[in-house]
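Researcher: For the record, we're logging two predictions in this thread. I'll number them. Prediction 1 follows.
Model: Prediction 1, sequence and structure:
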Amino acid sequence: MTAKKVAVFYNSEVVAEVDQSWYEKLKWCAFEADMKRARLCLHHDPNDPLHEMIIVFHCDTLVRPHRHRGKSESFHLIFGEIDILLFDDNGRPTRVIQLGERHTSKSQVYRLSGALWHSVVVRSEYAAIHEVTNGPFREEEGDFASWAPADTGDLRQFLSDCRRQLV
């Protein structure tokens, strides 16, 4: 079995700065990573009570519909375009939130403060967000939708069909 190529970096400084060189590094790492995304954690540790991350998505990123119980999340788009798809408990798409750069008519900030099923669809070659959520991070707390395909090809088609129903 081969190890998964992931791209997660943790800030170790008291003051974190993110400049263009970080975005370029994260873009390259996202392209190379198995999940087609790269993350710079501005917090120091997975156990921190507040998590702030810069996440760069490549257009081949697939995010299986999921929900977070007892957590909230917010995204502030830095560059690119993404859609947030929301679903009901039966897997029917209920809403799309389109995030785009300031010169567009799309939103730049989104916040989810309930346990709604959601996914991310990347609409540009690369997109970057500043995500804020409450910690600590526990992988076992992830709640993936049983009604969503786990296979990447099927998931890509499912998300595309869901988005088409709403836009």
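Researcher: Logged. Prediction 2.
Model: Prediction 2, sequence and structure:
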Amino acid sequence: MAITTSGVYWVNMEKAMIGTLPTSYESTSAAYWGVTDATTSTDANFDAVEFRNNAAITEGTNMTADPLVTPTIALATPLTNQMNHNFADPQWTSITTTVMGGIVTSGDATDSLDEVYYLQDFVTAATTSSGTLDVAIHADGALVWS
């Protein structure tokens, strides 16, 4: 099964809400992964997947996780009863790859027990050939919830 939708991994969102998630969404040890369509963690299991080893993440060719830079959780401005998770735009240089989405995890290593936070479906593939791949995070944040 390929990436079919964006979504939040609810097991870890629940942990974040009750304060038992071991790594904060605001931690700089959290990471953004560019993932291919071979990633099989989709809407069918957002309610059950907790760790990387369950998410079947397939990184883009020659890509490594990009640690989150200046991650924040903040109230939306103006106050709209929303919060957002935001960070600097991830970037990879000198790579040749095609990615279909991005996934945020609690760590930037290949630790199979890194928690998965959410998956973003790009809908249209992002491709680069020996170039730079930038993911532009929306001004309202990578994840907005109310």
